[in-house]
Specification:
By secondary structure, this protein is α/β, with parallel strands linked by helices. Helices cover 44% and strands 16% of the residues. Helix 2 packs parallel to helix 5.
Amino acid sequence: MKISASTEQKEQKLLLLINMKISTNNNKIFNNYMQIAIDVAKKQNIHLAKKQQEIPVGCLIVEDKTKKILAKSCNKTISKCNPLYHAEIICLHKAMRKLNTNRLTGCSMYVTMEPCCMCSGAIVLSKISNVYIGCLSEKTGCAVSNYNYFHSSVANSKTNVFYPIMEEACKKLIKEFFK
C-alpha cells in the first residue's frame, strides 16, 4: 500500500517531534546555540540582507564533546556572487578546515531555516551527527517539509534531525525579510 506524500510528511514531522521530546531533555542548551544562529542571521540582516537581498539564515556548527563552536555563518550567495554560498555550506567548509578533516562526526549543526537539497546532501556527506532546525522552508526544505533527505535510501549516512528549536523567532526573521 502506497502512503500519500502528505501522510508520509505528517508521520515524519510527528517522528521528529517525538525525537525532539525524547532527545532534548535540556532545551536551554539547544536554545542557546539556536539564539547564536539567530544573532548571526540578524547581524547579516542589518548589514547585508535588505541592501543585497540575502535571505537571513544563520548557521553554526558545534563540536559535541567540547561544546565549542567551530564555525558560524550566514547566507552569502549574493555578496559572493555564488549560489553555493548558503550558510550551511560555508559553516561546513569552515568547520572542516578548522578540524583539518572532511568528516564532522561528533558535531551538531544549528540552522535557523530548514536546509535545501544541496545543503542536506552536503550535511550527509560531511557525516555531521545532528541537525537542529529552527523553522521550515515550505518551498525548498529537504529535511522535513518536502522530503526527508537525511533518512532516505540515497543518504550514505544517517543524520539525526531535530525540529523545531525556537521556531517562532526563526520564522520572524524570514517574515520580516519578505515584508
